[in-house]
Amino acid sequence: MSVKSSIIKALTCFLLVCSSTGYAQEASTITIEPRRVFRDTVIITKHDTVWLEKEKVKIDSADISNKRSSRYDKRVHRYRKHWESLIPTHTKLQFAGNMGLLSLGTGWDYGKRNQWETDIFFGILPKYDSKRTKITMTLKQNYMPWSIALGKEFAVEPLACGMYFNTVFGNEFWTHEPERYPKGYYGFSSKVRIHVFLGQRLTYNIPPRWRLGARAVTFYYEISTCDLYVVSAFTNKYLKPKDYLSLSFGLKTQLF
Predict the structure, then answer these.
(1) What is the mean pLDDT of residues 92-107?
(2) CA–CA separation, 87 vs 108, rounded Å?
(3) Model confidence pLDDT, tens digit, residues 7-22
(4) pLDDT confidence of residue 115
(5) pLDDT over 70 for what percent of the chain?
(6) How confident is the model at residue 31 (pLDDT cuts 50, 70, 90)?
(7) Which of 71, 119, 72 is nearest to 220 (CA)?
(8) What Rg value do the Cα atoms of the chain yield, rounded?
(9) Architecture label for domain 87-254
């Protein structure tokens, strides 16, 4: 009881002293001033922070706009874009088609809807009744006017058409008639053939979670003929379509 009474007496003495010396008014102001100081500090700090961030963003955006509009950056961008356009967008594997028993190639898609394709193939032509196996090269141009979506994952191209040039490597093939033949005896080149084709395609768009090295896979077939076969069909009525038309199958892997 003595400790409690002594604490009460000390508090009573402190209040009496404050009231007698005028500290009570100062104490009341103390409860108000911290709020004003705290409020003012928050406003000032917030104002300063916002002002600094705005200035920083303004300077950075100005720097970026200046860099983008510089001639040097535009020239570098055009330079990189031209070289990136040379990167192949797909690969193909084709069976038959008068360009080798099996041909492997790569190519580029372009156009507003990627309706154009340019391919280059290298194929293998077994020797069969000849003396050796031969290598072929083909430059092919494709055009697909329509593409019809079948849901989210499949699409069909009802018409694929185009033409391609094919050549066979070897000394036994020639562009101009050798001197051992009378002039105009053959009238065509045995080294280069010009082909035209029609076909259809079915594309499977691989879902993003399953994509590893390709974005889509396309299966296609083509019916083709060449310049020499067309001439033979008109000059030899006994020939049947199977004699001057060729059926081929292919698989396209879309990389980009």
Answers:
(1) 95
(2) 8
(3) 556 555 555 555 544 4
(4) 94
(5) 70
(6) very low
(7) 119
(8) 42
(9) Beta Barrel (2.40)
Model-level pTM greater than 0.70?
Answer: no
Cβ-contact 121, 94 below 8 angstroms: yes
Residue 24, pLDDT > 80, answer: no
- The single-letter DSSP state of residue 112 is T
Is residue 145 packed enough to be buried (19+ CB in 10 Å), middle (13-18) or exposed (0-12)?
Answer: exposed
In whole angstroms, give the CA distance from residue 203 to residue 131: 40
CA angle 59, 63, 67 (to 5 degrees): 170
Tokens 């490597």 belong to residue = 169
106 Cβ neighbours under 8 A, 6+ residues apart: 88, 90, 91, 92, 119, 120
Residue boundaries of the structural domains of the chain: 2-66, 87-254
DSSP 208: G
| Distance from C-alpha of 67 to C-alpha of 77, rounded to nearest angstrom | 12
**Residue-by-residue DSSP string for 72-86:** HHHHHHHHHHHHHTT
d(CA 139, CA 212): 28
